[in-house]
Design a protein that fits this description.
By secondary structure, this protein is of the alpha+beta class. About 35% of the residues lie in helices and about 15% in strands. Strand 4 and strand 5 form a beta hairpin. Helix 1 packs across helix 9, helix 1 packs across helix 11 and helix 9 packs across helix 11. The longest helix is centred in the last third of the chain and has 18 residues.
Length: about 300
């Protein structure tokens, strides 16, 4: 197949046009009760940050950015180098420590917004990112109601970074490292239906210790990370304005309004990046300079199609 610069732009335009019509969310009738999930009991969290340390060690991330005195004075969000973060909140019932990470939505907006299925909802439940499919459009970041996916702006080969619920460990029958290493059993791993039953049991049996609300049971269509707490969640910085309906449909409306060039351009850049990563030195020496980018990229696209 012969490619030139004009055909490359035509292909990018077609890709961009079709990408403006993302697939409808498949999960509207999906039974998520058997999804892998995590229950976080904030009444048991003591703010030791062992989860942060074990996460960093397990995934080759830098040491958590703790201050010298282990202070909780400033809010620390999750970042591209820190997939989970614990913060302290002063509440109506005293201080409460809150662990944050990806919520692993049942119908993730990030996955629905992803034009190449790089952000992917696994059959087991965790939402993971697949580098080989990512074109760097960052729609996953825009669409996430929890502001979770983070982009490596300072990297020459940037990635999208976020908690994967230790999906690689789950495939081996192991627990997520944060769950395995929590010294106070504030984290419980299991199937979502089982964790919801456990959460309700704790609330019913200890009504003075918990508010009657399981965060993540319905928010944003439901999530794979669930919370129970002694205080209302609006005192802990949680979004309490989220609809019970899943967010992919809202994402679809957003993408339909995105100008075609904003979708087509990242696709072209992905093709060029792949061509650069796997370029043939012989071809680079022989091809006319003005046609090199289009021809090499076109060849790669042709192989992938």
């Amino acid at each position: 197949m012969e490619f030139n610069r004009r055909s490359l732009f035509k292909l990018a335009g077609v890709a961009g046009g079709t990408a403006l019509l993302p697939e409808k969310a498949e999960a509207t009738t999906r039974d998520a009760g058997g999804d892998d999930a995590i229950l976080i009991d904030l009444t048991r969290c003591v703010g030791c940050r062992t989860c942060e340390e074990s996460c960093a060690e397990a995934h080759g991330l830098p040491d958590p950015d703790w201050s010298d005195d282990f202070s909780y004075e400033s809010f620390r969000p999750t970042t591209e180098t820190q997939w989970t973060a614990v913060n302290r909140y002063e509440t109506s019932k005293g201080e409460v420590f809150v662990k944050r990470q990806c919520m692993h939505c049942l119908q993730p907006a990030c996955s629905a917004a992803c034009l190449t299925k790089a952000m992917y909802k696994t059959e087991e439940g965790p939402v993971i990112w697949r580098e080989s499919k990512c074109m760097g459009c960052r729609f996953c970041m825009v669409s996430c109601p929890f502001d979770v996916p983070k982009f490596e702006y300072n990297s020459a080969v940037p990635k999208i970074q976020k908690c994967r619920m230790c999906f690689e460990r789950l495939e081996k029958g192991q627990l997520p490292v944060c769950v395995e290493n929590c010294p106070n059993e504030a984290l419980t791993f299991g199937k979502r239906d089982d964790l919801l039953r456990e959460a309700r049991k704790r609330i019913v049996e200890n009504p003075d210790d918990y508010v009657d609300h399981i965060y993540g049971e319905h928010e944003a269509g439901g999530t794979g990370v669930l919370y129970i707490s002694a205080v209302p969640f609006d005192e802990l910085g949680f979004r309490t304005d989220l609809d019970a309906e899943a967010y992919p449909e809202l994402t679809r409306d957003f993408l339909t309004a995105v100008p075609m060039v904003l979708v087509a351009w990242p696709a072209m850049m992905l093709a060029m990046r792949r061509a650069g990563d796997h370029s043939d030195e012989e071809e680079a020496r022989e091809a006319p300079r003005g046609e090199l980018a289009a021809d090499v990229v076109g060849a790669r696209i042709g192989k992938e199609v």
